[in-house]
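Input chain follows. Return structure tokens only.
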Amino acid sequence: MNPAELKRAKRSVRAEVRAIRDAIPASERARFSQRIGERFLELPEVRAARQVMAFWSFGSEVGTEGLIRELHQRDVLVGLPTIVDGDLSVRAYAPGDQVMPTPFGSAEPVGGDRLDPATLDVIVVPGVAFDRQGHRIGYGGGFYDRFLRMIGSGAFLPSLAFDVQVVDAPLPAGGFDLPVDAIVTERETIRITPDRRST
């Protein structure tokens, strides 16, 4: 599959899965998000973490407000992504800190100390669609793939998703796309073993 075909294939899957996710009633999304947050917080890697990079959820994404609050209550240093000159950077965030909206609908901290990505124990990677090999389709900007390749972090990389966002067939993926280590849904936690993380 050439780059143009890959881009078209990803765009098609992104639109289809996002429409399915958008159709989940808000009350169900809230209930599922709470369950996903509880599952996420019980992961051994998360329970042992001292620094976690989360993300500010928006639209029909799995809600992250509750898990961010719980991490903070556990005295975990939480970071949120910010875009600086087209690349991701990480700033410390605590509930109640000022945030500003981004052009794509999320929000990022206004202040907060810059965090060294090499010190992060867990990086929560957002996405629209996932397969059981750990591949993901994000929003098309490539921010996380560039960020993770640049920092070469040994951090644990989980994603949060509603069950309907996980597809059985392999997603279209190129050599630049990095798989995640786990996908946490309201029904299950999918662990990606090394032999299933082929790119």
